[in-house]
């Protein structure tokens, strides 16, 4: 997934892939491969910045050295952890939705192995973030998480995804998102630790509430009744 399949693009080719991916993803938001291609072709400076931050963080540096992968063979033990732990919460999140950690698209358009790993890591920790912020995987939940991801990584693709997602909202969903989820997500993404510099797998055995406090994570609050009607 990190070696052998990557494609080198010149400037025009990169622009063409970015534009085609953006249009395709807007037409069909379920196309994870197009969203991934859009993120890679528009996000190189952002991923380079994330890489530098990881190099300057003790825990981030450990991630870069060990290059852990969030795949079934590596995280399957989370299903056997006590119910109160972060690992067990992640396992419940995945199991309740019949998700597999092995379903992430490969990295294709990054020039170096180091950057390719950072991109793959960002994809693979996405479900950890869903778990930690207690966000659903519906359109509103994914859009809120993209706001947090933008605050954390400054990826253009994240804001493009929010624009594309909110365009599909009903009037009720749009009101709920912009009055409740959006302001919370902006605050949550700004006040928590640098989430790309966390070695999540080493914290699976810790209490979920404890790791949230340690990383400054405030889960999404319940929707006010006035916005439920």
UniProtKB/TrEMBL annotation:
Q: Determine the domain of life of the protein's source.
A: Eukaryota
Q: Name one GO cellular component term.
A: extrinsic component of mitochondrial inner membrane
The protein's UniProt keywords, in alphabetical order, are:
Lyase, Membrane, Metal-binding, Mitochondrion, Mitochondrion inner membrane, Ubiquinone, Ubiquinone biosynthesis, Zinc
Keyword Cell division present in the record's keywords: the answer is: no
What is the uppermost EC class here?
lyase
What Pfam families does the database record attribute to this sequence?
Coq4
The entry's family comment says: Belongs to the COQ4 family.
Q: How does it assemble?
A: Component of a multi-subunit COQ enzyme complex.
Entry function: Lyase that catalyzes the C1-decarboxylation of 4-hydroxy-3-methoxy-5-(all-trans-polyprenyl)benzoic acid into 2-methoxy-6-(all-trans-polyprenyl)phenol during ubiquinone biosynthesis.
What protein am I looking at?
Ubiquinone biosynthesis protein COQ4 homolog, mitochondrial
Q: Which organism is it from?
A: Senna tora
């Amino acid at each position: 997934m990190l070696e052998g399949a990557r494609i080198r693009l010149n400037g025009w080719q990169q622009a063409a892939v970015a534009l085609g991916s953006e249009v395709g993803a807007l037409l069909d938001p379920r196309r994870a491969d197009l969203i991934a291609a859009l993120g890679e072709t528009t996000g190189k400076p952002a991923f380079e910045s994330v890489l530098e931050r990881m190099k300057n963080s003790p825990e981030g540096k450990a991630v870069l050295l060990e290059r852990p992968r969030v795949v079934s063979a590596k995280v399957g033990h989370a299903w056997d952890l006590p119910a109160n732990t972060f690992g067990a919460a992640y396992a419940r999140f995945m199991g309740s939705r019949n998700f597999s950690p092995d379903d992430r698209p490969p990295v294709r358009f990054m020039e170096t192995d180091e950057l390719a790993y950072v991109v793959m890591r960002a994809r693979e920790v996405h479900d950890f973030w869903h778990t930690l912020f207690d966000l659903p995987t519906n359109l509103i939940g994914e859009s809120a998480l993209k706001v947090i991801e933008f605050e954390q990584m400054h990826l253009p693709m994240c804001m493009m995804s929010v624009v594309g997602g909110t365009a599909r909202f009903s009037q009720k969903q749009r009101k709920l998102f912009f009055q409740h989820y959006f302001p919370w997500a902006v605050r949550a993404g700004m006040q928590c630790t640098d989430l790309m510099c966390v070695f999540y797998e080493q914290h699976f055995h810790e209490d979920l509430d404890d790791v949230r406090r340690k990383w400054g994570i405030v889960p999404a609050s319940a929707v006010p009744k006035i916005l439920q009607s």
